[in-house]
Amino acid sequence: MNLLLLEDTDFDQTAGSGARVVVSGERLKHVRKVLRAEVGDRLEVGRLSGGVGRGRIVELSRERVVLELGPLDLEPPPALRVTLVLALPRPKFVGRILQASAAMGVKRILLIHTARVEKSYWNSSVLKPASLRRHLMLGLAQARDTVLPEIECLGGPRDLTEALPGLVQDHEQVLVADAAGDEPCPLGVDGPTALLVGPEGGLLDEELASWGHAGATVVSLGRRALRVEHAVVALLSRLAS
Asked: How many angstroms separate the CA atoms of 104 and 108, rounded?
């Protein structure tokens, strides 16, 4: 956690100027146990959907940490102009993929169902809004970002069928990552791009054909078979170059 993310509810309205925040819970634990901060220390902070700056600890206990803020006038890192369309992976990998994607600057994520996605995955507690938000916030804090990505769960084939035309229309290019691709994943993106990453077993031929008919380009990272969590980072790194 390289940035202490602040929400509107953290701001102490009784302080008058609104330049004081009170933080508890998981963030307090990080301040005390990981940063080993003390009263008087200055921490890098950022207001959710706002700017970045520094805050000075004026009170620290087991219950809360209170900071007085300086100007939050620094901009967060620029967003990566990529919409990540991700076939729902095994639940134990969802959190780390979301954290990595948020840290890489992705601002829109669609979790979709494909033929090789187990239907039981959609019942996992990791897909509860609070869990999804927590992982995205951790990714933001890692990258010193403050802009929370949007995330949607499209759990049925019909949901994806209805969403596909909009994806194609809203993006200059739609890329499908698959080992069958003849083209390498491009380096850098000039405009809005949608990137589909399939499940561990890959997409079926008919699924690839459906995306191809919609105007998508199938790209590859080469012949090596990667786990989804590794492939996502590798693909986003190329697109961010």
From this structure: 12
Rounded-to-integer distance, Cα 103 and Cα 208, Å: 28
Residue 199's φ and ψ, nearest 5 degrees, are -80, 175
Measured between alpha carbons, how far is 139 from 104 in angstroms, rounded to an integer?
8
DSSP one-letter string for 183-200: EEPPSS-SS-EEEEE--T
User: Can you give the pLDDT at residue 224?
Assistant: 82
* Order of all β-strands in the sheet with 20-23: 4-6, 42-47, 52-60, 65-69, 20-23
**The domain boundary residue, chosen from 69, 96, 118:** 69
- Of the CA atoms within 13 Å of residue 51, those in its CB half-sphere come to 10
Between helices 91-104 and 129-143, what is the axis angle to 10°?
40
Which CATH number covers residue 200?
A: 3.40.1280.10
- List the one residue out of 236, 231, 235 whose CA is nearest residue 89: 231
Instruction: Please state whether beta strands 42-47 and 4-6 pair in parallel, antiparallel, or not at all (unpaired).
Output: parallel
- Kind of pairing between the strands at 52-60 and 42-47: antiparallel
Q: Which domain holds residue 40?
A: 4-69
Q: What is the pTM of this model?
A: 0.91
Model confidence at 79, in pLDDT bands (50, 70, 90)?
A: very high
Same domain, 99 and 118: yes
Residue 180 CB burial class (10 angstroms; 0-12, 13-18, ≥19): exposed
